[in-house]
Amino acid sequence: MKNVFVMDHPLIQHKLTLIRDKHTGSKEFREAVKELAMLMGYEATRNLPLEEIEIETPLCKTKTKVLAGRKLGIVPILRAGLGMVDGMLNLIPAAKVGHIGLYRDPETLEPVEYYCKLPADVHERDLIVLDPMLATGGSAKAAIQFIKDKGATSIKFMCLIASPEGIKVISEAHPDVEIYVAAIDERLNDHAYIVPGLGDAGDRLFGTK
Ligand code: PRP
Ligand code: URA
């Protein structure tokens, strides 16, 4: 699929193994998720536009490049997306941060929205939506639609592990959205958990359950 970018850099794959391991505790899990977000953010921002400016080094004037184009925003899907925010902000400290609160109803598996606060100028920003897990795709599909309804026109989605089903849902519902992912796993189980996956990302990040 042309809009899906699987980031198989060795450092990313190594840290992914750490967070998949059920013996990894919350502290190490949180650290690895943060580092993964930074490594993936580095790749996902590879095509940011540059412009040439003139500066003066201690030796002479020279032409050199700085970031140009639209300002950036990151939008974690609560709760688990929060684990990826600091890693992204390490790379792009000036980015504004919006939040969308969604949880999957355990019975219907449908996303339920409980919070949304986005930067006022969301329509002028390039946005990267963050969530470690793309399972049925229901949460990400709803979150992206929500952001579009608020006026956003430039959106990427970054997750750590996706299911093939989730990728299909987002690609079909939002063909304009590029998906950055560290691994596409085999399948969903009967409870819509990704297999082999890493379990419940929110619980593992925050030590609940
Ligand atoms: C998890 C995960 C995604 C969602 C993915 O959140 O962080 O948001 O499930 O599943 P889907 O693709 O089938 O919608 P969860 O609903 O467990 O909420 P939490 O982050 O508050 O734990
Ligand atoms: N949400 C998670 O946290 N993990 C999964 O495997 C699926 C949805």
Care to describe what's here?
With 209 residues, the chain is of the alpha/beta class. The protein has one domain: Rossmann fold (3-Layer(aba) Sandwich), CATH 3.40.50.2020. 31% of the residues lie in helices and 33% in strands. It has six helices and 13 strands. The strands form three sheets. Strands 1, 4, 5, 6, 7, 8, 9, 10 and 11 form a nine-stranded mixed beta sheet that branches. A two-stranded antiparallel ribbon has the order 2-3. Strand 2 and strand 3 form a beta hairpin. Helix 1 runs antiparallel to helix 2 and helix 2 packs across helix 3. The longest helix is centred in the N-terminal third of the chain and has 19 residues. The mean pLDDT is 95. The chain binds 1-O-pyrophosphono-5-O-phosphono-alpha-D-ribofuranose and uracil. The site of 1-O-pyrophosphono-5-O-phosphono-alpha-D-ribofuranose has 21 residues, from strand 6, strand 9, helix 4 and helix 6.
Write a brief structural summary.
The chain is α/β, with parallel strands linked by helices. It has six helices and 13 strands. It has one domain: Rossmann fold.
CATH topology assignment: Rossmann fold
Structural class: alpha/beta
What is the average per-residue confidence, as pLDDT, rounded to a whole number?
Answer: 95
Rg on CA atoms, Å: 18 Å
Oligomer: single chain
The main sheet comes to: 9 strands, mixed
Number of helices: 6
Note the gap between the termini: 36 Å
Assign the CATH architecture: 3-Layer(aba) Sandwich
Q: How many β-strands, per DSSP?
A: 13
The small molecules bound here are:
1-O-pyrophosphono-5-O-phosphono-alpha-D-ribofuranose, uracil
- What is the overall silhouette? globular
CATH C-level class? Alpha Beta
Q: How many domains make up the coordinates?
A: 1
Strand content: 25-35%
The poorly predicted ranges are: none
Which sequence of SSEs, written as H and E, runs from N to C? EHHEEEHEEEEEHEHEEEH
The amount of helix comes to: 25-40%
Protein name: Uracil phosphoribosyltransferase
Enzyme class: transferase
Keywords: Allosteric enzyme, Glycosyltransferase, GTP-binding, Magnesium, Nucleotide-binding, Transferase
Catalytic activity: UMP + diphosphate = 5-phospho-alpha-D-ribose 1-diphosphate + uracil
